[in-house]
């Protein structure tokens, strides 16, 4: 991930309103019509050769889901219609998605799409569970591949296109139409919220499909992936050298040194460095404090490679005061 990926939660967010969105393909201009029961959504089809595999009404208050790498259970959920679908816009596409639609008793009348981080490969269950709890109809997608296959894009251009923008658009269209079918009316507002790769998804939605959403919260967009991926390679090469990585045993010392030097800058000593950029000139002091508190640096002779050698000791100050 790029540097600002870890700052998603505190990143400056952009609220973008590209214009009133169309709620799927609404021939009746949004006038209410009788909704279909959850199980009736099995007959649903949509753009991009989208079909529904299952539509189940969940009333137990919890649901257990299986991902390529784990099994997760979410509790304290309102009753909802769990719709599992797939879009196959090309012969090499297999875009899995789930739409979670709260019953009319708890639906707030709005649609909020989850965004997907990193290279995705898994449905964002945690996000849609949270949005469901807050009353939104919601959706997430694996963007057309599974996370356990690191070579999913090699020789598969259409899968790359699905990941880049097509999957998010098709699942958004499907979700809005499912909402209209289930509730008998479109959502009053259609929103998107995410960061990092999800932020990149948001920007592409704005650029390519401005009618998909009424508003988008876009945080820390990972939109310069070619340079970012080159940075990943650089990091891997740099850290593969002997002694390049900071030993795990020293991390507590580094944390203590940073907090001792910078924690009080905001007037409150609370274990949180609010503005790490402010103290970037105190790297030497932080490095010295971290080394003095490190057990192996006290016992190692100068230049031994375990204490003060500038050629073997990682730059503690750079790590300690990095804003990320």
Shape: globular
Q: Please report the total strand number as a whole number.
A: 11
Could you tell me the mean pLDDT?
83
Query: Mind telling me the C-alpha Rg?
Result: 24 Å
Q: Would you tell me the structural class of the helices and strands?
A: alpha/beta
Helix content: 25-40%
Largest sheet: 9 strands, mixed
Q: Element order, helices and strands?
A: EEEEEEEEHEHEHEHHHHH
Regions with pLDDT < 50 over 5+ consecutive residues? 1-30, 297-324
Main sheet: strand order: 1-11-10-8-9-7-6-3-2
Question: Which percent band covers the strand fraction?
Answer: 15-25%
Number of H- or I-type helical stretches: 8
CA-CA gap between termini: 11 Å
Indicate the topology.
Blueprint: E1 13-16, E2 45-46, E3 50-58, E4 63-66, E5 71-74, E6 80-87, E7 95-102, E8 110-114, H1 125-133, E9 137-141, H2 157-183, E10 189-196, H3 197-208, E11 215-221, H4 225-239, H5 251-262, H6 283-292, H7 295-299, H8 316-320
Parallel strand pairs: 8-9, 8-10, 10-11
Antiparallel strand pairs: 1-11, 2-3, 3-6, 4-5, 6-7, 7-9
Helix pairs in contact: 5-6
In short:
The chain is α/β, with parallel strands linked by helices. It has helices at 125-133, 157-183, 197-208, 225-239, 251-262, 283-292, 295-299, 316-320; strands at 13-16, 45-46, 50-58, 63-66, 71-74, 80-87, 95-102, 110-114, 137-141, 189-196, 215-221.
């Amino acid at each position: 991930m790029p540097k600002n990926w870890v700052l998603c939660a505190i990143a400056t967010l952009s609220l973008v309103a590209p214009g009133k969105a169309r709620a799927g393909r609404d021939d009746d201009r949004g006038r209410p019509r009788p909704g279909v029961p959850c199980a009736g959504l099995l007959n649903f089809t949509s753009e991009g050769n989208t079909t529904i595999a299952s539509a189940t009404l969940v009333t137990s208050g919890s649901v257990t889901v299986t991902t390529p790498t784990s099994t997760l259970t979410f509790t304290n959920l309102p009753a909802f219609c769990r719709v599992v679908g797939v879009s196959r816009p090309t012969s090499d596409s297999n875009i899995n998605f789930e739409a979670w639609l709260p019953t009319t008793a708890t639906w707030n009348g709005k649609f909020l799409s989850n965004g997907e981080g990193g290279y995705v490969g898994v449905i964002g269950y945690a996000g849609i569970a949270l949005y469901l709890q807050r009353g939104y109809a919601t959706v997430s997608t694996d963007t057309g591949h599974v996370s356990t296959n690191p070579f999913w894009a090699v020789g598969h251009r259409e899968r790359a296109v699905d990941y880049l923008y097509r999957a998010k658009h098709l699942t958004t269209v499907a979700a809005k139409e499912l909402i209209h079918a289930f509730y008998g009316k479109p959502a009053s507002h259609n929103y998107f919220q995410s960061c990092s790769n999800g932020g990149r998804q948001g920007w592409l939605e704005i650029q390519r499909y401005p009618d998909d959403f009424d508003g988008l919260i876009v945080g820390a967009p990972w939109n310069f992936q070619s340079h970012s991926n080159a940075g990943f390679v650089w990091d891997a090469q740099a850290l593969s050298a002997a002694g390049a990585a900071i030993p795990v045993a020293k991390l507590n010392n580094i944390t203590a040194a940073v907090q001792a030097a910078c924690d009080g800058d905001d007037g409150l000593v609370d274990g949180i460095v609010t503005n790490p950029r402010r103290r970037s000139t105190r790297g030497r002091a932080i490095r010295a404090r971290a080394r003095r508190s490190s057990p192996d640096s006290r016992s190692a002779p100068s230049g031994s490679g375990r204490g003060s050698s500038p050629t073997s000791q990682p730059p503690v100050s750079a790590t300690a005061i990095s804003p990320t």
